[in-house]
Amino acid sequence: LRVVTFCVGASVARLEAQVAGAACVDAVGLGGVGTVSFSTVGATTDGFPVAGCGGASQISNDIWYCFTPLGPGVVEIELENQTFPAAVAVYSMCLCPASPSQLLGCDSGSVPTVIFPVAMGNSFLIRVGGAAAGASGTGDLTLNNHMRRGDCNDDGLLNIADAIYTLTYLFPPPTGGTVDPPCKDDCDSND
């Protein structure tokens, strides 16, 4: 798992995933951001057809992940280095079977990508598979967490609470009680 943090102090690591998660109920857990290698070889189709997925009406030979973000923000999921015509779909909640009403986004382009907002404590199903009937292969699934400039208190919203948090951090009350921002770059709203 290659961890990419768009904040002070980036770190890098890598994990390899086993061929697992072939059934939605066996979704492989992912936490945080980074890259995981995948294989859909030997997987079967385990989900409903998807509408509006860049030409793919069904994601075939699919595998599943349950992604739980470590904090709020905007996540970008991208399939890279795939050896087959691939598609990725993201569903709200890790509940199986994933229904079409849970679909947040889907793509089957040359570099399939889905971008969606996340909040701490929520989980999301990620479905990876073939964009064409019977297609399967290998590739890398990359999750990037994009910081939200101005979201100083890291609650996923841009509002007056961010300005108050910033001012309290910069000008602590005489009684103390100041907390460092989770990501100081988020507090820099005009960079």
Can you describe what's shown?
With 191 residues, the chain is mainly β. The chain is 8% helix and 33% strand. It contains 2 helices and 10 strands; from the N terminus they run E-E-E-E-E-E-E-E-E-E-H-H. It has helices at 160-170, 184-187; strands spanning 15-16, 28-31, 34-39, 60-68, 73-80, 86-92, 103-107, 113-118, 124-130, 138-146. The chain has a 5-stranded mixed β-sheet, with no helix packed on it. The protein has a 5-stranded mixed β-sheet with strand order 2-4-9-6-7, with no helix packed on it. The model is unreliable at 1-19 (pLDDT under 50).
Strand and helix layout:
Elements: E1 15-16, E2 28-31, E3 34-39, E4 60-68, E5 73-80, E6 86-92, E7 103-107, E8 113-118, E9 124-130, E10 138-146, H1 160-170, H2 184-187
Parallel strand pairs: 1-3, 2-4
Antiparallel strand pairs: 3-10, 4-9, 5-8, 5-10, 6-7, 6-9
Helix/strand-derived category reads mainly beta
**Oligomeric status of the shown chains?**
single chain
User: Number of DSSP strands?
Assistant: 10
The helix/strand order is EEEEEEEEEEHH
Compute the separation of the termini in Å: 29 Å
Strand fraction equals 25-35%
Give the biggest beta sheet.
5 strands, mixed
Strand order of the largest sheet: 1-3-10-5-8
